[in-house]
Specification:
Length: about 290
């Protein structure tokens, strides 16, 4: 929704708000809190990170850490941390809550205890909307009932997820692309049209693809045989998400999943990640090689 709004108003005048920082105190020790990080270039450069109190809105939380300039009635960030929105150049601030792109402005999202807020300043010329990212793993699934394939159940249990092998709206699937298409309708639909699904990576024509550097259109990743990507349910529905660790074959998918299980940091602050057949990282969406 937000990306469509950006496209519609890219050439229009914007009503910018004043730049200011809140004087609200940060979270007291042991008090409910959330994490907030701001990056640039699809997570390539970290600009800010800190803890914020679990009260008020995401906009309030952001302003508690840095001065923010707003637009569109104060609901959207137009500038902070030395990066300003440039509709003509198609660069803007986007934010994710627990790995899912927010469908509304930051002033309309309440901060919850344990929430992971991620702002990223990026070029959206290649793909306006990226609806979900792997970089907050396992936050999208924390505290939920999750249908899970091995070997990622341990990380989910540690995050408070209720793990089962059955069906659920929140799912973690590991397998070859062809098998996952047959097994999970959401994966099949997403692979039929990755752009419409807002995916930063896909398995297309027997190749793993990722958004190119700076958000250039998806392109094959040399040496890649598996992909970790988060597929979000369409906005306005029943919700849910699928973390797919999909390979060109079953062995590659399992090697990538095993690497994530051993070292979850390989997904941190990344939109989507490509792996070789041995489970080594060979690319991240939007980030230069």
């Amino acid at each position: 929704m937000r990306a469509l709004a950006l496209l519609a108003v890219a050439a229009a005048l914007t009503a910018a708000g004043c730049e200011r920082r809140s004087d609200a105190p940060g979270p007291a020790p042991g008090a409910p809190s959330a994490s907030l990080v701001a990056t640039a270039g699809f997570g390539a450069e970290t600009l800010l990170e800190g803890r914020v109190a679990a009260r008020g809105s995401v906009m309030d939380a952001t302003r508690s850490l840095t001065p923010v300039r707003t637009a569109y009635g104060g609901g959207f960030v137009s500038g902070m941390l030395g990066r300003d929105s440039d509709p003509g150049g198609r660069r803007d601030w986007f934010f994710f809550v627990d790995g899912i792109e927010a469908p509304v402005g930051a002033a309309d999202v309440a901060v919850r205890d344990g929430m992971r807020i991620w702002w990223d300043f990026r070029d959206w010329a290649g793909q306006a909307s990226v609806r979900a990212v792997v970089g907050s793993w396992p936050a999208p699934f924390a505290g939920r009932a999750v249908a899970t394939d091995p070997p990622l159940a341990g990380a989910l249990r540690a995050a408070g997820a209720r793990v089962s092998p059955g069906a659920a709206r929140w799912r973690v699937r590991v397998g070859g692309d062809r098998a996952l298409r047959a097994r999970d309708p959401a994966w099949r639909q997403a692979m039929d049209d990755p752009g419409a699904a807002g995916l930063p990576g896909a398995v297309e024509d027997g190749r793993v693809t990722l958004l190119g550097p700076g958000g250039a259109p998806r392109r094959p990743v040399p040496g890649a045989r598996a992909l970790a990507v988060l597929v979000a349910a369409p906005p306005g529905g029943a919700g849910g998400a699928l973390l797919a660790v999909a390979g060109l074959d079953e062995a590659a998918a399992r090697a990538a999943a095993a690497r994530i299980a051993r070292d979850p940091s390989v997904l941190a602050r990344r939109f989507a990640v490509a792996f070789d057949g041995a489970g080594e990282v060979v690319g991240a969406a939007g980030v230069p090689d």
